[in-house]
Amino acid sequence: MADLNVSVVSADQEVWSGEASMVVARTTEGEIGILPGHEPLLAILAGGEVRVTLPGGEKITANAEEGFLSVQSNSVQVVASRAELA
Amino acid sequence: MGAQLRVYRQKIKSAQTTKKITKAMELIAASRIQKAQARVTASTPYSRAITRAVSAVATYSNVDHVLTTEPESIERAAVLVVTSDRGLAGAFNSQVLREAEELSELLRSQGKEVVYFLIGRKAVGYFQFRRRPSERQWVGSSENPQFDLAKDVAEAVLEAFLRDASDGGVDEIHVVYNRFVSMMTQTPEVVRLLPLEVVEGVEEPDSTVLPLYEFEPDVETVLDALLPVYIESRIFNALLQSAAAKHAATQKAMKSASDNADKLITDYTRLANEARQAEITQQIAEIVGGADALVAKK
Fold first, then answer.
1. pTM, entire model
2. By the 8 A CB rule, do B247 and B33 touch?
3. Closest by alpha carbon to A18, among A82, A79, A75?
């Protein structure tokens, strides 16, 4: 299965970008996990951790505040006014 | 030394000192442009992502939002003027202020009242000197704008926008700022921020068809959350552009100041030499004249 193309972006810079096999984020509705092939989605983040699982199984955690998550054709964007790698 | 010569030498010295200062300022500004430009570039992924998301929501929903609907009658318009805190940047501030004046003139001719939001000490000074009122001012951080400032400004203008016109709220918000075009050109730009105009197509070079998004929790809430963020990012972009443009303008102004100092030094050196020669010639003439007189006496 194709990998996800993930980028974590904050207001003044791109915090992280790369390939991943899974992204878990907290939206206002609750936690959501995104795997490759997910339908296009636009969700509001509730703030908190965004966990990115790399293809190798490694995990990257980022803290994102006030932002949203957009998914379309295997590219995931976590956009937050403040975001940093934990 | 003759009086004339002394005056010229003094002028040369003063031009040289000034040149040292302007040269240093030119170099400082040049190094800051790079940094400011890098910040503009670094913030583009964010604004692109937001613009994209906003166009997605706007295309696939027919929701009327308070921020996108044109009010029936516009009583009051707000103008956000972005200037710098410091001068010595050529026409940088005056061109923005002139543009703002022209815009106000236009708005007034349409029967709208104009209120001002000012960023930068120069704009505040301009308004204070003319004893004109302004709604809010922000000073002290225009050289190196932080996102918090953009957030603060966005909050203030949104608050004014959402307030009723009878309460002193505004129905329209314009931004006037200097856009960084290149090292040599900075053009003043007027943008209407609110109500939002058609968002699609703006800053969207690839016109791929946007997919049908699933919204979480729902379209209205997503739009509610997105639009203020969009405004913030537009203001932040304007601030960064203005900061980069300011450094470029300073560099240009200081370069021409150094060039002028060079020219002055050359001109005065020539004059000083002339004066020196004239003095010598006169002294020789005096000596010769004196010697002749002595010879004639004998």
1. 0.85
2. yes
3. A75
Q: Which residues of B touch A77 (CB under 8 A)?
A: 49
- What confidence category does residue B209 fall into, taking pLDDT thresholds of 50, 70 and 90? low
**Is B89 part of any domain?**
yes
Q: Would B262 be classed as within a structural domain? A: no
| A3: helix, strand or coil | coil
The CATH number of the domain holding residue B195 is 3.40.1380.10
Mean pLDDT, residues A47-70: 87
In this prediction, residues A22-33 reach a mean pLDDT of 89
Contacts of B226 in chain A (CB under 8 A): 68
Residue B114: domain span: 27-205+219-252
In B143-172, the residues whose Cβ lies within 8 Å of chain A are: 147, 150-151
What distances in angstroms separate CA A37 from CA A5, A29, B106, B153, B174, one per listed residue? Answer: 11, 21, 52, 39, 42
Mean pLDDT, rounded, for B70-91: 87
> In CATH, what number does A4-85 get?
2.60.15.10
Judged by CB atoms closer than 8 Å, whether chains meet at B43 and A67 is answered as no
A75 to chain B, any CB pair closer than 8 A? The answer is no
Task: Among A9, A70, A73, select the one facing B45 at the smallest CB separation.
Answer: A9
